[in-house]
Amino acid sequence: MNWQRFILLSVIVGLLFVPSVKAVASDTVTDVLDRNDGLIDNRVTSIAIDEQASLMYIGTQEGLSVYNLESNSFVDNVTFSDTPYRNYVFDMCVTPGGVYLVTSALEYPLKSYFWREGGGELSNVLLHRSTSAPSLTSVGVTENDSIFCVGTNGNGLLVYDTHSATVAQYTTASGLTSNVVWSVLRAEVNAGHEWFFLGTESGVSIFDATSSEIVTDEVLGTISHLVRAMLYDAGNRRLYVGTPEGLFAYSLDSHGTSLVDGFPLTQDDGLASSNVLSLAIDGDQLYIGTSKGLHKYDLTKMDRTGLYRLDFSNGILDDAVSALAVHKSGSAGTIYAGTIGGGVAVVRISYGLTWGEWLVLYAPVITVLSSAAGIATAFFECRRRNRD
Q: Rounded CA gap, 123 and 232, in Å?
């Protein structure tokens, strides 16, 4: 018997059973970023990540904090006024090199912040309060930063064209489901058309920035709930909609819009609360921020067995998760969960090994075992010859 081949083959077969796909392990809250670490305020309203610059922008009720993801440290805190309640950040959208913010500033509530070498640069986007609604709520911007879609609390949608320096207003008379627009989400659903999903007081409307018109969707237009959180999964052409009545998911395919089987997810399905405040996605794992904790939902299972809860008992300092963002780095990832009073919970994600990482890790082991098998073969061969 060739003992070397037998032992080597056994080792290789055994190693093949080591998980090599990116299976997500149990998530762990490893840290909390709060005022003690340099966060400007523990009441977090929004989070945006610029992967190219390795910067995370954290909007709070008292201003903007900028966090370097490489050095794991805060590098800037920004306020807009000497009056505290004028520093509220309602919403943000990231753009290469910076972020656009909707704030409670008195004259110019829409602002931009760009990180320059040695510091940040805060500027006003020329949308004066006299030409806009009394209260702005949310913002989205086209890919080339030329058109801003700004939601308002009562005056519909404002569309600011930076090239012509004009502002167009869209209301229920234009086809909006409500004049209160709580959230704005940019998505390219159909080639050549930049869409903005608008979460309103009464469901979801769509603004087509390419044709400059409100698009009516017969299914999305019938949602009767307030919409504060939305997420578009381009790979599956699926829109997730967070409401106080649960999480809805809609398939947007060539045959039209339809509610995905297994949705909505509510408290009856295992959510700690039906009030969904924030959403993020990492592969086939959907993260759901509610008023009573953070949930991870396995989209491959599509039932309540795929729900896993992270809350105060796991290290999150406030159960109301108001903002979520995902940051990936190599074979590890991080979910940043902003809360209404407990700062930002840092949730580490561990992935299994890719094939490349598997080879790098186990090649030395295979080499050593192969050598040991060679020695064993020589030993048995020597004994056989002695017997002969």
A: 29
> What pTM was estimated for this model as a whole?
0.83
- Mind listing the pLDDT tens digit of every residue in the chain (388 residues)? 555 555 555 555 555 544 433 444 456 778 899 999 999 999 999 999 999 999 999 999 999 999 999 999 999 999 999 888 899 999 999 998 899 999 998 888 999 999 887 789 999 986 655 544 458 899 999 988 899 999 999 999 999 998 888 899 999 999 999 999 999 999 988 777 899 999 999 999 999 999 999 998 989 988 889 999 999 999 999 999 999 999 999 999 877 899 999 999 999 999 989 999 999 999 899 999 999 989 999 998 887 777 888 765 666 666 799 999 999 876 678 999 999 999 999 988 865 544 554 455 455 555 555 565 556 565 556 666 666 5
Angle at 283 between CA 218 and CA 220, to 5 degrees: 10
DSSP 52: T
Between the two ends of the chain, the Cα-to-Cα distance in Å is 16
Are residue 272 and residue 371 in the same domain, yes or no?
no
Asked whether residue 160 falls in the same domain as residue 191, the answer is yes
Helix axes 355-387, 3-15, angle to 10 degrees: 160
192 shares its domain with 60: yes
DSSP state letters, 185-208: EEE--STT--EEEEEETTEEEEEE
Same domain? 303 vs 380: no
Query: Do 333 and 222 share a structural domain?
Result: yes
Task: Please tell me the distance from the alpha carbon of residue 6 to that of residue 321, in angstroms, as a whole number.
Answer: 55
How far is residue 274's CA from residue 263's CA, in Å, rounded to a whole number? Answer: 12
Do 378 and 292 sit in the same domain of this protein?
no
Domain interval for residue 209: 38-352
Note whether 205 and 185 are within 8 A (CB): no
Q: Does residue 32 lie within any of the structural domains?
A: no
Neighbours of 228 (CB within 10 A): 20
Number of domains present in the structure of the chain: 2
